Hints:
By secondary structure, this protein is mainly alpha-helical. 75% of the residues lie in helices and 0% in strands.
Amino acid sequence: xxxxxxxxxxxxxxxxxxxxxxxxxxxxDEFLVSKCSRMIWFCLFSFVLSxxxxxxxxxxxxxxxxxxxxxxxxxxxxxxPKMVESGKSWELLANxxxxxxxxxxxxxxxxSYCLIGIPESGQILNxxxxxxxxxxxxxxxxxxxxxxxxxxxxxxxxAMWYPFSSYYGYYFSEPISWFVFVLLWMFxxxxxxxxxxxxxxxxxxxxx
Length: 208
């Protein structure tokens, strides 16, 4: 009697587990075809496309640099040559934090070298940040206008704008500044449309 009861209870439990797994898969399938998921895939596609275009620009300016110029034209990435020479990346980054005239940009360039470990890490950082800027613009415009593809083209133009292509071949700070400005503009617009404490705090932190 007891083995039969045990087998029956075990079978019921297993059937319930299988039923719950199938319900979860159904929710996942529903999410994959939902509007939110389409927006996520849309943004990921825009990020990859923007990064591909900017990588070509960066590769061109690294392969064919301007005569007489190094990667660090404006001295924003001055930590990277020091890290290459000393071989003490993390230690130099930690010791240089308090002596920088501008903390954020040189720190990010130095951090990119610590994580990637090649002199071209500054260019990779600029490509990544500019791709994020394009994706943020696409998210904002696609969610604000009736035709999401308009947002896609705005972000794509932002990434393909050739006069700015040289910024991705050197240690320039403009891509990082643009990313902050894009976020600031987006949050201010949202704050005017829907006043919220979280949006106000985000605007204040970006302004600071």
